[in-house]
Every structure is written in structure tokens, then in C-alpha cells.
Amino acid sequence: MTVSYASSVATVHHGSLVRLLARWHGSVYQAVWPTFLLFCFAYGGVALIYYLLPTDTPERLEMKQQFVQVCAYAARISDAIPVSFVLGFFVNLVVSRWWKQFLNLPTPDSACYLMGTYLRGYEHKEGYYVSEQCDSERPLLIRRSVARYLNLASALCFQEISLSMKRQVGTLEDLVDCGLMTKQEETIFLNLSQDNGHFFVPVVWAVTLLSRAHHEGFIKHERHLDAIVAEVVAFWRQLHILFLHDYVNVPLVYNQVSEVFHARGIDLASLLCI
């Protein structure tokens, strides 16, 4: 999870750089300190053995010379492997995926704005907007239902891709308790297959409800219906992109190659080149 630090360096002065480098939560130090500590112990152990090992016999002297040759060979290998080049591509791929996921976090605001404008059940008469059904709350209920369906689709999608969401509202009963789903809708979902990706079902319900509102006269023009449906479909598309990012990970081979290059080119060479 991203840690916010902009407030610490919002105003530039002499201590901004120090405060930025000294942050611990979410820092690179917090991420690598166990491996770095293990490396320091291993490095110190090998260094002590190398420098404290007596060379009173030809066999031990030859052993030290062989160790120096191995270190020199490891140094040549580390120079031959383009570690920065490989890790640069890997970091660029990971950061690009993270930023794309952030940009595709959906919000139902656009669809709600359009529904508040177009889904009102008013008819234009002599320059005024007069309600055909002044005592009817049908348009309001439709707007609320569509907004609830969009939020339900988000909750179902985040259940599949977010562990924190899974812990908070991990079952359909939790969605019913928090008001995002009714008992009848829960029964429909229980009758579906147990495969993942059923977050599109509330979106289908929302589009069907909007089409019904158009036929009932609450949405006067088809272009208004098309505008609202386009926002609903865009909302689903963002959820679909998030789901695909979780379903299709970075290829394992790429992760393994980057990790091997990192370990072989940095850790191993540093450990041997004392």
C-alpha cells in the first residue's frame, strides 16, 4: 500500500531531504532490512574466517589463493551481467502496472451525476418542467438502486482481488448486512456457479433497470439513456481491468530471472569479493 509523504516535503527547506530519507514506514529500509542484516552477518563471518585463518601451512595458503581467484571470477561475472538494465525493465513493468491499477479504481459519481440530470420523470410543457408523477418516488428509487448495483459490483470485484476487503466483507451475508445486497439477490448469486468474476451481474441489473426506466418515461430521450449506460459500462470496464491485473500476474519467469540476476550480480559477488 502506498504511504503518503507529500506533507513532509511540501515546503522546501534545509531539513526536507533529511526528513524524506529518514522516513521508515514504507521506505526501502523497511523492505530490505532482514535481507541486509543476513547479508551483513554472512559477510562478516566470511571476512573473519578469511582474515583470521592462519597461513602457517602451504595447504591453507593455497586455500586462500583459490578463494581470491573465486572472488575475482565472481567480480567478472557481476560486471558481465547487466543487472541495472534487467532490474530497470522489471521496476518499470511493476510501477506501470501499479499506476494503471490506481487510474482504474472506479467511482460511480459520473453515472450518478447523469442519472440526477436525466432520470427525473419530468416532461417539458410550455417552457417549464412539470412533474408527471409528483407523488411518485419511482425515479428516486431507480437512481438509488442503480447506484447500489454499481457499489455492489465494486464490492464483489474487490472481494476477489483485495485481501483486506475479503477480511471485512468476505461473504454474501456480509454484503446483505451492510445493505449492498438484498436477500433475493443473495439467492440469485448462490444459484450461480462458483467461478470468479460474477461482479458483472449487478452491472447487468443496473443496465436493465435503466432500460426499464426509459420505457416507463422517466428517461425521455435515448441519447440520455445512452449516456448513462456508457458510464455504467465504463465503470464495469475499470473493474474488469483491475480483475485482469490480479488474475494475470507478472510472468513468474521474469520475477525469477530478476531475482536471480539481483542475487547473483550483487549479493553473491559482494559476498565473495571481500
TrEMBL record:
<feature type="transmembrane region" description="Helical">
    <location>
        <begin position="31"/>
        <end position="53"/>
    </location>
</feature>
<dbReference type="InterPro" id="IPR021134">
    <property type="entry name" value="Bestrophin-like"/>
</dbReference>
<dbReference type="GO" id="GO:0034707">
    <property type="term" value="C:chloride channel complex"/>
</dbReference>
<keyword id="KW-0813">Transport</keyword>
<keyword id="KW-0812">Transmembrane</keyword>
<dbReference type="InterPro" id="IPR000615">
    <property type="entry name" value="Bestrophin"/>
</dbReference>
<comment type="similarity">
    <text>Belongs to the anion channel-forming bestrophin (TC 1.A.46) family. Calcium-sensitive chloride channel subfamily.</text>
</comment>
<feature type="transmembrane region" description="Helical">
    <location>
        <begin position="73"/>
        <end position="95"/>
    </location>
</feature>
<keyword id="KW-0406">Ion transport</keyword>
<keyword id="KW-1133">Transmembrane helix</keyword>
<protein>
    <recommendedName>
        <fullName>Bestrophin homolog</fullName>
    </recommendedName>
</protein>
<keyword id="KW-0868">Chloride</keyword>
<dbReference type="Pfam" id="PF01062">
    <property type="entry name" value="Bestrophin"/>
</dbReference>
<keyword id="KW-0869">Chloride channel</keyword>
<comment type="function">
    <text>Forms chloride channels.</text>
</comment>
<keyword id="KW-0472">Membrane</keyword>
<dbReference type="GO" id="GO:0005886">
    <property type="term" value="C:plasma membrane"/>
</dbReference>
<keyword id="KW-1003">Cell membrane</keyword>
<keyword id="KW-0407">Ion channel</keyword>
<dbReference type="GO" id="GO:0005254">
    <property type="term" value="F:chloride channel activity"/>
</dbReference>
